Amino acid sequence: MTDAEWERLAPLLLANPRQGGRWADHRTVINGVFFRVRTNITWRDLPPCYGNWKTVL
């Protein structure tokens, strides 16, 4: 995702919740979803640079 695309999308996403654990970085998660769709791999085969596959799922 380009910086320009992220600037348009970021304000639409929720901030971290007051209670519970901290959310994963939205941009990393979204890029992980895009990578998975683009390459047609299984969720478990997602590269570690996108975080835990269960988080991106």
TrEMBL record:
Positions of the Insertion element IS402-like domain: 1-56
Look up the domain of life of the source. Answer: Bacteria
Q: Which residues form a coiled coil?
A: none
Matching PANTHER family, A to Z?
Answer: BLL5188 PROTEIN, TIS1421-TRANSPOSASE PROTEIN A
Q: What is this protein called?
A: Transposase
Q: Which organism is it from?
A: Streptosporangium vulgare
